[in-house]
Amino acid sequence: MFVVNIVNLVDALDLSNSEYTEFQVRGNKYITVIKYALKEDKLERRHLVRLTNSKFSVFISEELKIALENNKITGCDFLEVKTI
What we know:
There is one protein chain. A three-stranded mixed sheet has the order 1-5-6. The mean pLDDT is 91. It has one domain (9-83). 15% of the residues lie in helices and 38% in strands. The chain has two helices and seven strands. By secondary structure, it is α/β, with parallel strands linked by helices.
């Protein structure tokens, strides 16, 4: 059995090409991303990343997605993300 722990966060969120909403709570501004766009050059060909701006979402490469599907890994749900 293998476990993955993502320790490095990548600053690859492209807000200008993402769909998001902004809101304020106690003077602090927060965003909720509806559709992500990622800066491809910041991903540096990594196959598994989390973003500095969105620590809860995990992003994987198309290659990793195919490998997971080919090995019949279950319990995953994939959404396509735009890369710029």
